[in-house]
Specification:
This protein has 313 residues and is of the alpha+beta class.
Length: 313
């Protein structure tokens, strides 16, 4: 879909003060000065606790806020998406979402040439180029109850979810940084085993022995790893990569290949694409969505094509 230019009406700026080891709070004066410098009209709110963005966005949309700038990281973006897609006041396609990255991974913005420096990101918002973006919804279980969660970037299953669980535990103790994901790849390798999964893509069944698996919409995860190198954010389908049975030594040797996407050429890697994805396993495997640790199999994924407008570089 062709890019469109957004108008000049007022933005809501939603700030995560804890993003990037509290950079959201410490750097807000600098960011707000840049928004003013480039003539971006806005009002702002700070979130106060985990997942506050979900309920806050629901409330603010009801009061007419349809253009939203997020100051935070990938987890904050994920919260905002869940606020937007669980409200029923307006069509999500009439909402515009922009990002000033202040996180540790900042993976989603990498797909859109959004600079990591604040002035560069504000200039992108001022230029106003947009694209319609697909959204995913995943259904999963916690014990015997089914839940669902929306995501804009990528879900990790198996090994990837276990690594993410450790990264999130570190964040909970104030231990953050771009190398944490790499560090926990190696700590999780010890004692981790493959799992037999049943995969159904648009009605066609596949069986795989799975070490790790990704299902998603955009390309990057884990602090710049190109885990879905062929993903296109507005094509109405998920990209899927599966790493099958592989030695721990080979995983360690090819971590670098995750950063340019060339790991998909390994014989242990299989790729698919599809719109309706169903996954079951024995034993259960776990899931993360946009960095949020969720539940266990069985999983069901559905795609919402071109469901929200986002600002791009």
């Amino acid at each position: 879909m062709a890019n469109e230019i957004i108008g000049e009406c007022e933005w809501l700026v939603l700030v995560n003060p804890h993003a990037g080891d509290s950079k959201g709070l410490h750097d807000w004066d600098e960011i707000s000065a840049l928004l003013t410098k480039y003539g971006i009209q806005y009002h702002h709110r700070f979130t106060e606790y985990a997942r506050h963005a979900v309920t806050l966005i629901q409330e603010l949309i009801k009061h007419g806020c349809h253009k939203i700038i997020l100051v935070g990281g990938d987890g904050f973006l994920n919260e905002a998406v869940n606020g937007i897609f669980t409200q029923t006041d307006i069509d999500t396609r009439n909402i515009t979402l922009a990002m000033i990255p202040v996180g540790t991974g900042n993976d989603w913005v990498r797909s859109f040439n959004i600079p990591f420096d604040y002035e560069g990101a504000v200039k992108v918002i001022k230029e106003g180029k947009t694209i319609m973006h697909d959204i995913g919804r995943v259904f999963y279980f916690i014990n015997n109850a089914e839940y669902s969660w929306y995501f804009i970037n990528m879900c990790g299953i198996g090994f990837d979810a276990e690594v993410n669980k450790k990264v999130n535990a570190d964040k909970g103790h104030g231990r953050t940084g771009p190398l944490k994901y790499q560090y926990h790849i190696f700590t999780t390798l010890i004692g981790y085993h493959t799992t037999q999964i049943s995969l159904n893509i648009d009605g066609k069944s596949h069986q795989h022995e799975v070490f790790s698996m990704n299902v998603g919409i955009a390309k990057y995860n884990g602090g710049g790893m190109k885990q879905l190198p062929d993903a296109v954010v507005d094509d109405g389908i998920f990209d899927i990569t599966i790493i099958g049975k592989i030695s721990r030594l080979k995983v360690a040797r090819h971590v670098k290949d995750l950063y340019d996407g060339s790991y998909i050429n390994l014989p242990e890697v299989t790729t698919y694409a599809g719109a309706d994805i169903r996954i079951d396993s024995e034993p259960k495997v776990w899931l993360e969505g946009d960095g949020e640790s969720l539940g266990h199999t069985p999983f069901r994924f559905e795609i919402l094509p071109q469901a929200i407008r986002v600002v791009k570089g």
